[in-house]
Amino acid sequence: MIRARFDETKILPKFVYYYTLSTSYEEWKNQIFIQATIQNISAEKYANLLIPVPPLSEQEDIVKYLDAKCKNIDELLAVLKKQMRMLQDLKHRFISDVVTGKIDVRQEVIPEYEPVNDESDDEEYDEEV
Q1: Axis-axis angle for helices 119-128, 56-99 (nearest 10)
Q2: Residue 56 pLDDT > 90, yes or no?
Q3: CB of 21 within 8 A of CB of 62?
């Protein structure tokens, strides 16, 4: 584990955090990984990491902008996850009602369709929730 400390008169820790989520950082990581059982980056390598450092006022603006965007995305994800749970519940309830005979489907006409693997949908949903 590596602990990094920053001179907050020059760079904001949250700016560095957002930088570590960028594609530039990912590309740097992929170039210098020490491949063992678990991917690892040494402290010496981190010491050579070059981070673009705009003026503090610009860093603050960037952090505020990204905080707002991330908050919006998190709120949208929460709504989508809730909708997914509701749709999965509806699907399971519908299947249960058909299987137990609460809904009679004997006279229903089944349209032509291309089969899809529906199992992956449930697994994907379960992992995300």
Answers
A1: 130
A2: yes
A3: no
Collapsing DSSP states into helix, strand and coil, what is residue 40?
A: strand
**Where in the chain does DSSP place strands (E)?**
none
The b-or-e profile of 6-24 (16+ CB within 10 A means b, else e) is eeeeebbeebbebbeeeee
Contact 74, 68 (CB under 8 A): no
* Other residues' Cβ atoms within 10 Å of the Cβ of residue 45: 16
What confidence score (pLDDT) does residue 25 get? 93
Q: Are 42 and 89 in contact (CB under 8 A)?
A: no
| Distance from C-alpha of 17 to C-alpha of 77, rounded to nearest angstrom | 21
| pLDDT at residue 40, rounded to an integer | 75
* CB 15, CB 62: distance < 8 Å: yes
